[in-house]
């Protein structure tokens, strides 16, 4: 099990611990808002399991049926996470609606609030680890899981404040109203996760700053060639795919053109981690006099 898989597995353990703590907090108070917080933690555990499956699948080497690897499965998992987040939000909205229609007093328990606060601290620390390591390793599944946990942390802080306010003022309706706000925040998080994942499934190009670096590397390492054009990029999980046409003099030997391609590939892989590069060599009659000028 590699580092990413261990992080994904760790999310399951953390999710179960946090779920237990938040459910205890709900039992101690009877608060609908704390119940909604605990309900979201169930989704956290499920999304952590989905992330682990995705990370394990994406690590499978390329084969005859998947010559470009299995990296895109992480985007599918992130979409699933987004859908589960939306389902959780709708469930919480349902509970909040009934609570607003018939507000019920709940017991003020300092212990319950402290238990919920401890769960939030654990979540905050773990979501920081997931987002940091997920971005470093370019793992959409781990980043999506971390962002969902971050939303959970923000929601929990709001819940603790609101429950305390409801207890201080005696306004029982604040409890379900706060649960509804938590649900809306979760819905926004789910939309964000799905939007980013769909972008990956649609083969979006690399960011502009990365594309600029790729162009500079090609230009600086294509000595002997005439130009490069039709540069295309896309990302799939941690993999970056780069392909372009390289124009060389018509009389250049194949071995010399191959050496230029090797030099460019080495430079690109030094600049962009986990890059898969495809170069189509063309004679000078195919030059477009546009694209990347060789320095």
Automatic annotation (TrEMBL):
Residues 11-202 form the Cation efflux protein transmembrane domain. It is found in: Cell membrane. SUPFAM superfamilies: Cation efflux protein cytoplasmic domain-like, Cation efflux protein transmembrane domain-like. GO terms for biological process: intracellular zinc ion homeostasis. The chain crosses the membrane at residues 7-26, 32-55, 75-93, 113-131, 152-171. InterPro entries: Cation_efflux (IPR002524), Cation_efflux_CTD (IPR027470), Cation_efflux_CTD_sf (IPR036837), Cation_efflux_TM (IPR058533), Cation_efflux_TMD_sf (IPR027469), CDF_Transporter (IPR050291). Keywords: Cell membrane, Membrane, Transmembrane, Transmembrane helix, Transport. One of its GO terms (molecular function) is zinc efflux antiporter activity. GO terms for cellular component: plasma membrane. Residues 207-284 form the Cation efflux protein cytoplasmic domain. It is a multi-pass membrane protein. Pfam families: Cation_efflux, ZT_dimer. Belongs to the cation diffusion facilitator (CDF) transporter (TC 2.A.4) family. NCBIfam families: CDF (TIGR01297). This is Protein p34.
């Amino acid at each position: 099990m590699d580092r990413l898989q261990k992080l994904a597995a760790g999310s399951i353990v953390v999710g179960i611990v946090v779920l237990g703590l938040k459910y205890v907090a709900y039992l101690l108070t009877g608060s609908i808002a704390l119940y909604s917080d605990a309900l979201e933690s169930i989704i956290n555990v499920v999304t952590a399991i989905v992330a682990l499956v995705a990370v394990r699948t994406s690590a499978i080497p390329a084969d005859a049926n998947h010559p470009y690897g299995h990296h895109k499965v992480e985007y599918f998992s992130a979409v699933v996470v987004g859908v589960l987040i939306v389902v959780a939000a709708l469930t919480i909205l349902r509970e909040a609606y009934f609570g607003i229609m018939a507000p019920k007093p709940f017991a003020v328990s300092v212990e319950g609030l402290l238990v919920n606060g401890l769960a939030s601290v654990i979540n905050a620390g773990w979501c920081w680890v997931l987002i940091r390591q997920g971005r470093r390793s370019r793992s959409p599944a781990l980043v999506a899981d971390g962002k969902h946990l971050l939303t959970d942390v923000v929601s929990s802080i709001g819940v603790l404040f609101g429950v305390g306010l409801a207890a201080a003022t005696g306004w029982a309706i604040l409890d379900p109203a706060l649960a509804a706000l938590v649900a809306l925040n979760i819905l926004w998080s789910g939309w964000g996760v799905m939007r980013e994942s769909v972008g990956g499934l649609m083969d979006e190009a690399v960011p502009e700053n990365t594309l600029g670096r790729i162009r500079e590397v090609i230009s600086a390492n294509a000595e002997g060639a005439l130009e490069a054009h039709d540069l295309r990029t896309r990302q799939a999980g941690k993999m970056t795919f780069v392909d372009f046409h390289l124009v060389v003099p018509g009389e250049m030997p194949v071995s010399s053109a191959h050496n230029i391609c090797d030099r460019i590939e080495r430079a690109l892989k030094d600049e962009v981690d986990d890059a898969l590069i495809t170069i189509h060599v063309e004679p000078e009659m195919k030059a477009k006099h546009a694209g990347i000028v060789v320095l």
